[in-house]
Write a structure and sequence with these properties.
The complex is a heterodimer of chains A (171) and B (496). Chain A is of the alpha+beta class and 171 residues long. With 496 residues, chain B is of the alpha+beta class. Chain B is 49% helix and 24% strand. In chain B, the strands form 4 sheets. Chain B has a 7-stranded antiparallel sheet with strand order 6-5-4-10-9-8-7. In chain B, helix 14 runs antiparallel to helix 15. The relative contact order of chain B is 0.08. About 2% of the residues of chain B have low confidence. The chains are: A alpha+beta (171), B alpha+beta (496). Chains A and B meet through strand 4 of A and strand 17 and helix 17 of B.
Chain lengths: 171, 496
């Protein structure tokens, strides 16, 4: 389909054939805890409203509201669970690949030669589970930066080291 | 321009005091403009605000004096010099700042001239580095020859390969815009944008001066006039139509004047490797384009412009701040000149590559978006027009047909080993060109619904812009993805 016939496009390395690794299962716990916190606050607010507000609207529609929140919560959790399986990453000789998203699936590849700097960050919560986030920055706009969440600390360090040496060795 | 010595700390030209003062005074007047107007109006009505004219004048003189003293102090404390590898700058009246910029980190040097500077015949020199906008340095008053010499010095050594060896040579004037073409460019512009600006300006002005208008009883008069016309709906319609026509005319004039002012005397100089752009009426500027820093090229025209052979070229460079990015646009060029520039800025660019279209699914997406927007608009329309809103639906349907037809017709993409070209636009015809070795990241994007239809988009990011190859077959998208990655990774070339 390309005009330049010198290269057989079928013989190129294909993105489909890359074996993508799922991220660490423990990250699911972090997602769940974060979501529980958010919904916990909402539910708490609802209950407090039920107990202390004399507003008629709240009182009469309380169960409707509660059901709505429950439904939202349930669907959100379902989506998050399904989307979790879509979070995958892979390393190749020349690039880093990260895929995520259920409703909108994005598969992003950053050539290692285009990496500006790499950063590993650990939040308090992820430290409890021994997880880390690997941020890979390019010179492009923010959309072209990669943020691989939920790697085990050892894996994050390994990738970080590999990328650092390759980037430095390359230039 | 002989040898000007920059090795010792030196101040700018003493006219700098005037420039600094001018800028400060302008800012001061701008920020207290409303207050002046308010005072003026209350004076007109012979009402005192409790402050006599004498005090006002005294305060004014005091402020002017303070500004003048501050300008002088600022001028005295502003010193710069160039050492072998760095540019040094000392500033600050109370807090002393010492800035050192390594020559190698200097990204761009611009020479600009605003209206005041034109009057007293000095130029300002801007030094831009990579990093945030605050790192920009401006020396506001230099002789033109000094500025050019300083620019040359800043570029020597480090970027010897690019700018310096190019600078001393006399350049050919490649393109000089004529007033007639500039006028045509202004008239044939997409006026929708300036219409929006004018409308918002109009309403902003109205709410700003509402109070004073009321005081002058203008609003009552206007309301009275409107009330007379309100007798029939038709008259109201006429009034609105008249208002819209007037605003349209104003926005047309606004577009034309803006194009004229910004691009006055536009001149493109061609040097061996770089291009230089000079333009501006009140704010004169000269910019240098370096091919290696160019990330994206955008060519714009529209039906009317294409008829008059008017094309504009925007050059997106890496490490240039957003405000400056706008200035790298050359308007009113002929097709031949565009082709020439493309050949100069891109290596071996040819348009003969095979053209591909997005999948017909793209039309469906466009319709879906339109329907969504319209569904939202339909509510208020129903409330205002009652059952007649179906008429508006009809207009909308026609618009939708035209929109989707042209949008789809204008969207295409071409891929060769060295370049990626993406066409698009509805009123404008926009062509995006980028070199494959400047790609920073690639993204394969597919929604849940697109997956079932075997459709996907490829998002291509460079250091200055992100473009999308929209809604093509997923298999094609994957091949393009693989191919572009191959191009980036096999060429092993720097993106800057």
């Amino acid at each position: 389909m390309f005009t330049n016939t010198q290269i057989d496009t079928n013989a190129l390395p294909q993105i489909d054939q890359v074996e993508l690794h799922p991220i660490d299962k423990a990250y699911l716990k972090i997602i769940v805890i974060n979501k529980l916190l958010v919904y916990g606050v909402i539910v708490l607010a609802l209950i407090l409203a039920k107990l202390f507000l004399v507003d008629v609207l709240i009182q009469s529609y309380f169960w409707l509201l509660a059901a709505a929140v429950g439904l939202l919560c349930l669907s959100n959790f379902m989506l998050a669970l399904l989307a979790f399986k879509k979070r995958m990453y892979a390393l190749r000789d020349k690039d880093v690949i990260y895929a995520h998203g259920l409703l909108i699936h994005r598969l992003t590849t950053v050539p290692i030669s285009r990496i500006q700097h790499i950063e590993t960050s650990r939040s308090w919560l992820s430290r409890q589970f021994g997880l880390a986030t690997l941020n890979i920055y390019t010179a492009g706009e923010s959309g072209s930066d990669l943020s691989i969440k939920g790697l085990s600390e050892a894996e994050a360090t390994r990738i970080n080291d590999f990328l650092s040496t390759t980037v430095n060795g390359g230039s | 321009m002989a040898a000007v010595d920059f090795s010792q700390p030196a101040r700018q030209s003493s006219k700098g005091i005037l420039v600094i003062f001018g800028v400060k005074a302008f800012k001061f007047i701008k920020s207290f403009f409303i207050l002046f107007v308010a005072y003026g109006i209350s004076m007109l009505q012979k009402k005192q605000l409790g402050i006599s004219l004498g005090w006002i004048i005294f305060g004014f003189v005091l402020v002017i004096l303070l500004l003048l003293v501050f300008s002088i102090l600022k001028y005295l404390n502003f010193k710069f010099h160039v050492s072998a590898d760095d540019f040094h700058l000392d500033t600050g009246v109370i807090n002393k700042d010492n800035t050192v910029i390594p020559k190698s980190k200097i990204q761009n040097v611009y020479i600009k001239q605003n209206f005041l500077q034109q009057l007293i015949n000095v130029v300002s020199l801007n030094i831009e580095t990579a990093g945030d906008n605050k790192s920009e340095i401006e020396i506001s008053a230099l002789d033109k020859s000094t500025a050019l010499a300083l620019k040359t010095q800043l570029f020597t050594k480090i970027q010897a390969d690019v700018a310096a060896e190019d600078l001393p040579k006399e350049a050919d004037v490649f393109f000089k815009v004529s007033l007639k073409r500039l006028l045509m460019e202004g008239i044939s512009q997409n006026h929708f944008k300036s219409f929006l600006i004018i409308v918002s300006f109009f309403f902003g002005l109205y709410s700003e001066f509402e109070k004073y208008l009321k005081e002058l009883r203008l609003s009552e008069r206007i309301e009275g006039a409107v009330r007379l016309d309100e007798q029939s709906l038709f008259n109201l319609f006429l009034v609105n139509l008249f208002l819209i026509v007037v605003l349209l005319l104003v926005s047309l004039v606004f577009s034309v004047v803006q194009t004229l002012v910004v691009n006055f005397n536009l001149e493109v100089l061609e040097r061996e490797r770089t291009l230089e752009i000079h333009k501006g009426l009140f704010n004169k500027m000269s910019l240098t384009l370096t091919p290696s820093r160019i990330q994206n090229l955008v060519i714009k025209t529209n039906r009317v412009k294409a008829y008059f052979n008017l094309y504009s070229l925007s050059v997106k460079q890496a490490m240039v701040n957003k405000k400056q990015q706008k200035n790298f646009t050359i308007v009113a060029m002929e097709k031949v000149q565009i082709d020439h520039l493309l050949n100069k800025l891109l290596e071996s660019y040819s348009e003969e590559t095979e053209t591909h279209k997005p999948a017909p699914y793209y039309k469906r997406i466009l319709w879906l978006r339109l329907v969504l927007i319209f569904a939202v608009l339909s509510g208020p329309a129903f409330l205002i027009f009652g059952n007649d809103f179906w008429l508006i639906n009809l207009v909308f349907l026609l618009f939708g047909l035209v929109f989707v037809h042209y949008k789809f017709k204008k969207t295409y993409y071409q891929i060769s080993e060295a370049h990626l070209t993406i066409g698009g636009g509805f009123i404008d015809t926009i062509t995006n060109i980028l070199e494959t070795h400047k790609i920073q990241a690639l993204q394969f994007k597919q929604t849940f619904f697109q997956k079932r239809n075997g459709i996907a988009s490829v998002v291509v990011s460079t250091a200055s812009k992100t473009v999308v190859i929209p809604y093509i077959k997923a298999t094609d998208a994957k091949r393009i993805y693989d191919y572009l990655l191959f191009c980036v990774e096999s060429q092993d070339r720097d993106w800057m």
